[in-house]
Amino acid sequence: MRRLTVLSLFACLIMAVTASPLAKREEAGNVEVVEPSDNEVDAVGAFPLDFGVENNDGWKDKDHRKRCTEREICKGVVPVDSEKYLCRDKRLGPKKLPTRFPLDDITHPYNRFGGICSAAKFLSLWTGNNGAFVYPPKDGFQLNTNDDPIKGTIKLRYGTLLDRFGSEYGQYLSPAEAPYPQRALPPSNLDTPTTGERYPYNYHVYKVIKDLEVVAGPIAPWFGQPGQGTQYFVSTNIFDLISQGYLKPMPLEFSKIF
């Protein structure tokens, strides 16, 4: 009986890591991609249960003991942006995380810095010399033991619901309402566009209205997040897929945000 219990727990853990939904990474503009080095932070161990917990009252470290104050978090960061961003740096995402369904569920549990209490350290780990975020190699797919991306071409059928955090110039989608930590995105993807409030936290929902071929696979850990969700990479940007009749934007009310 003890052996069966252990095996059952192991099977559940494997399912939690491999079967979770998701998508991914990038903003419009130039994106720097680098191969990981021996000096990279090991994000593989950053499974959600190991994370510190962040909410709108503050942060705790990965051992759930020390509460990080905003002063500690922002030490060493030069404030250059609006006060709505954490540490007044839009790369660090909004100061306040979502509090309404479903976005509150998507972003909880979530620690934007992967369990460290220093925004400056986080930026030093995940940005390049130009201050922009450095993105993972091989289009962000998890790599196998030969360092090849784990991916395959599939067809998404009519009625499939997808989403993304980011502008419609991107080429990545995820299964709708997938947990944010499993997307391995930087916190800046949660920034509401400055052009308007139509899409709070830059969250977009789409319905497949014509069968859509995508490259699908698990997401590599990055930005201090565990990844391991599923991402869909498409051949052109989201604007084009809408104009070509593959995707239909869904109103936010559809996702019960309001």
TrEMBL record:
TNT domain segment(s): 156-248
Signal peptide interval: 1-19
GO terms of molecular function: NADP+ nucleosidase activity
Keywords associated with the record: Signal
InterPro entries in the cross-refs: Fungal_surface_NADase, TNT
Pfam families: TNT
Keyword Hydrolase annotated: no
UniProt protein name: TNT domain-containing protein
Gene source species: Dissophora globulifera
